[in-house]
Amino acid sequence: MQKHFLLLIICCALVQAGHAQNALKAGTVALSGSINFTQNKEDTNSPYYNGSNSYTYTDKIFNFNPGISYFVADNLAIGADATWSIEEISDKSNSNSSTPYYRTTTSLRVGPFARRYYMLTDQFGFTGTLGPAMSTILSPLAIMARRTRQRADFMRA
Question: How many structural domains are present in the chain?
Fold first, then answer.
């Protein structure tokens, strides 16, 4: 596994070396983003409950991260980025007393940032990013609770 990780790092470094970057000039607009999907599944067999009990846990996560920045000075950018995330969790067991559990959570994070690029060479450098972590969870339960509070506030007024 460590050999695969090292190979991945070397490949990423070679790709970055092929895209030479000079100093990032003031007035430049940069678009950024990423898409990520992760799925974890855990199957467990336990002999402790009624002789045999199997348990399955599944977690699926999808992330979409767009961003835009404007260089206010050479190698200094300000901008905004967003993260839209959906997570699905399911728990299933074959025991008689267990019912399957499902939960879907959607979250949205939008916020400003300032990013400084420290270029060591024309092709290699580091970045430092400063920005607040603000997020909102958009699950059906949270939306229903928010609507209930709004109705209660309306009735009191």
Answer: 1
SS (H, E, C) 6-61: HHHHHHHHHHHHHCCCCCCCCCCEEEEEEEEEEEEEEEEEECCCCCCEEEEEEEEE
pTM across the whole model: 0.57
Are the beta carbons of 17 and 36 closer than 8 angstroms? no
Name the burial class of residue 128, with classes exposed (0-12), middle (13-18) and buried (19+) by CB atoms within 10 angstroms of its CB.
exposed
pLDDT in tens, 22-35: 667 889 999 999 99
SS3 153: helix
Whether residue 127 contacts residue 119, with contact meaning beta carbons closer than 8 Å, is answered with no
User: β-strand 53-73 against 29-46: which pairing, if any?
Assistant: antiparallel
12, part of any domain: no
Domain that holds residue 55: 20-156
